[in-house]
Amino acid sequence: MYNFFRQRKTRIYIGLGVAYNLSGYGTNRYVLVDRTGNYPGETDDNFAPGKKGWGSVLFRAGTRLNSRWEIGVVAAPTGSIIDYQLFWASPKIYSLRLAWFPFVHS
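Given the sequence above, the corresponding structure tokens read:
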């Protein structure tokens, strides 16, 4: 985390980090249904198993005001939770943070 503006009660910061996410998923099922009746249905359990963990890069920026309020954004534009032959899932997470610190001594 780098504070490029720092006063006694006010800070403006940017940061870069990495995260490793651990997860677990139940069995998923792929079901193909032919409503015309020309082809038999198809079922495949655990069709696209999710990864047990994946890494991502985090970007963070914000400000702390009056030593009690923090406003910031966090972005995690990388990561992959499913890597299958025909498709993949790569969530891109962006969040806005508003925090209040009531017990900070001014």
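The mean pLDDT is 81. Try to locate this feature in the token string yourself.
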